[in-house]
Design a protein that fits this description.
Strand order of the largest sheet: 2-1-5
Distance between the termini: 34 Å
Number of helices: 2
Structural class: alpha+beta
Shape: globular
Number of strands: 5
Strand content: 25-35%
Radius of gyration: 15 Å
């Protein structure tokens, strides 16, 4: 699962959080994490983030294109 959070509450309007979650703590031997029981997307949305969720490379590419297009539109309006 890949989550992208865009923070609207920050003084850094271009700040993006990327969360790549394979539900495993690889640094400690691959033990399962608890994120299968937590909806990170819902947490982001309830925290007033613009959030996107995908499980595929193509989905990630589409989301990143959408985000970059939005930044370019903002830059031309300044």
């Amino acid at each position: 699962m890949i989550l992208l959070f865009l923070n609207n509450l920050s003084d850094l309007p271009n700040l993006i959080h990327l969360v790549f979650d394979n539900q495993s703590h690889e640094s400690t031997g691959g033990q399962p994490s608890n994120t299968r029981n937590i909806d990170l997307y819902k947490i982001a949305k309830s925290s007033n983030y613009k959030a996107f969720k995908t499980n595929s490379k193509i989905g990630l590419q589409k989301i990143l294109r959408k985000i970059l297009d939005g930044f370019q539109k903002k830059d031309t309006q300044l």
